[in-house]
Amino acid sequence: MSETHDPQLLKGVLSVLLLHLLAERESYGYEVVQRLQAAGFADVLEGSVYPALTRLQREGRLETRLVPSASGPARKYYRLTAGGHEALAGGLGAWSRHIAAVDAVLSRPLPPSENGD
Amino acid sequence: MPHTITWYDRLRIERLVWSLDQQLYDLPRVQRIATRREVRANLLEAARDVGTREALRGVGGSRRLAEQFLTAEFGDNPRHTWIGAAYAAALTPLLLNFFLAEAANAFQSGVTATDPHATGVFTWSGVSWLQSAVTYTFNDGTATGHGGGWTPLAYLLWLVITVGFGRLWRLRLRRRPAVAPA
Predict the structure, then answer these.
(1) How confident is the model at residue B175 (pLDDT cuts 50, 70, 90)?
(2) Domain range holding B145?
């Protein structure tokens, strides 16, 4: 799956996506990008993900630890804090409500167009 | 297939990392260093994975990346800039002193142009509002001077320029907590 995504839509859900991925297992920055791309967000740029991780850390939703790497500099692993788990639960609820509201509108039948198409 | 990182690749990565660093001077020092190290580690990892060109493309350039890091730290609201304030605070006295000194030199040159062997005490009131009076003592055309210091208004102007360039009025009394270094 390699469809592109609306950057504005993606921006709105990036935090929840990151929290969910990191709730599954802790990861370092580039690994998070790889996991996002493997999940179908092929057009997600590292330049968006790294600052988003920093913001979530500043907000107290992520904590970090440095892990030495055999292939280069130490990696900074991110994992959720208790506040991060709360934020994820809240984000999932908001996302569900959002989907339900959008679906409710988009599933309404459209009137036939005037030119008969 | 893993890519080999050459010295040229490392130089390209370091160029981006240090260019980014120069644009993050408004962040606390510890946080700026942590950001620099993290971006470098991730770029090296990405370069090994997809090649340096693609890895650098992925971060979207140092200016954009710096803007996103600053937005992540300070939010979307207009923000102050310490580096701008520092430049203004350093450069304003240099420029102001240069122009005031040139004005005083012009007065001194005027005296010696009138009389190359001038002797006596000559006082110039200085640049209005910005400078105190300058007194030159001439002895056969050779002058020694004193005075010409800044007035309180000049100091106020310095402060206003520093605050203006740094947009320091945007500083909030309650600072956001800084990111703990990993």
Answers:
(1) low
(2) 82-166
Asked whether residue B134 is domain-assigned, the answer is yes
CB contacts, 8 Å: A15 with chain B = none
Pair B28, B99 in one domain: no
Say how far apart CA B111 and CA B93 lie, in whole Å: 27
Question: Is B88 found in the same domain as B47?
Answer: no
How many structural domains comprise chain B?
Answer: 2
Q: Is B177 helix (H, G, I), strand (E, B) or coil?
A: coil
Assigned CATH topology for domain A7-106: Arc Repressor Mutant, subunit A (1.10.10)
pLDDT confidence of residue B160? 95
Backbone angles phi, psi at A23, to 5 degrees: -70, -30
pLDDT on residue A55: 92
Q: Do B72 and A51 touch (CB under 8 A)?
A: yes
**Average pLDDT value for residue range B27-34:** 90
A25 burial type by CB count under 10 A (0-12 exposed, 13-18 middle, 19+ buried): exposed
pTM: 0.69
**Contacting B residues, span 13-42, partner chain A, CB-CB under 8 Å:** 34-35, 37-42
Tell me whether B101 touches chain A (CB under 8 Å): no
The Cα–Cα gap between A32 and A25 comes to 10
Beta strand B120-124 pairing with A72-80: unpaired
Tally of residues, chain A: 117
